[in-house]
Amino acid sequence: MGSYLNPSSMNFQNCLDSEIYIDKSQLIAFTNRKKNTLQKYICVSRPRRFGKSMAADMLAAYYGCGEDTREMFTKLKIAQDKSFEKNLNHYYVLKIDMQDFMSKANSVREMLNILTEYLLFELVDAFSNVRMKNKADLAEVLGDVFNSTNRQFVILIDEWDCVMRRYHCEQEKKEYLDFLRNLMKDKPYVALAYMTGILPIKKYGEHSTLNMFYEYSMIDSAEISDCFGFTDDEVAELCARYNMNLDTAKEWYDGYRLISEAGGVRKEYSIYSPKSISESMLRHRYDAYWNQTETYEALKVYIEMNMDGLKDAIVEMLAGASVEINTRRFQNDMTNFAGKDDVLTLLVHLGYLSYDQEQRSVHIPNKEVAQEFIASIETISSWGEVARSIQNSKALLQAVWDMDGAAVAAGIEKAHQEVSILQYNNENSLSCTIGLAFYYAREYYNMVREMPTGKGFADICFVPRPNHLDKPAIVAELKWDKSIEAAISQIKEKRYPDSLRDYSGKLLLVGINYNREAKTHECAVEAVEVVGG
Question: How many percent of the chain have pLDDT more than 90?
Answer without folding.
Answer: 63
